[in-house]
Amino acid sequence: MTCVETYATLRIFSRTLHPAVISGSLGIDATDPVPLDPASKYRPRREVNYWGWCTRQHVASKTDNSLHIAALLALVQGKAAELEQLRSVGCETDICCFWVSDGQGGPSLDVAVMRELARLGLGIWWDVYVDSERKA
């Protein structure tokens, strides 16, 4: 794999729960909370509260996506019931991975990680960019 930069974010969206309430439910403070703002010029900010916990400043590796995903899974270890409770009141949860590559290859998930994501009810997706300027 030719990853140049990566990190991952556990994201929770809610139309009704403020990010501080989500933090209280999980016992985890968000790294990137954005409360609903009806006056925002950005539609998503007018419509939903956002709670996010990003690995960017918490995982030393900048190129091993599996370490970033592992950090998020460790963060929510023992929190399956809390995540399910949040979803039961309308929250949407997922993991978004930022990925920049300068060539062939891409991220992968092993079976154990896929099982844990499924057990926690967390979908996962990648926001992929190709940095052609770094190619030789």
Please write out the topology.
Blueprint: E1 3-14, H1 19-26, H2 43-47, E2 49-54, H3 65-75, H4 80-88, E3 92-101, H5 111-120, E4 123-130
Parallel strand pairs: 3-4
Antiparallel strand pairs: 1-2, 1-3
Describe this structure in words.
The protein has 136 residues and is of the alpha+beta class. The protein has one domain (3-134). Helix content is 32%, strand content 26%. The protein is built from 5 helices and 4 strands, in the order βααβααβαβ. It has helices spanning 19-26, 43-47, 65-75, 80-88, 111-120, and strands at 3-14, 49-54, 92-101, 123-130. It has a 4-stranded mixed β-sheet. α5 links the parallel β3 and β4 (123-130). The model has no long low-confidence stretch (mean pLDDT 93).
Features:
4-stranded mixed sheet, 4 strands, alpha+beta, 136 residues, 5 helices
Detail the poorly predicted runs: none
- Compute the number of strand runs: 4
Task: Order the strands across the largest sheet as they lie in space.
Answer: 2-1-3-4
Percent of sequence in beta strands? 25-35%
Our count of domains comes out at 1
Oligomer: single chain
State Rg.
16 Å
Structural class: alpha+beta
Can you summarize this structure?
This protein has helices at residues 19-26, 43-47, 65-75, 80-88, 111-120, and strands spanning 3-14, 49-54, 92-101, 123-130.
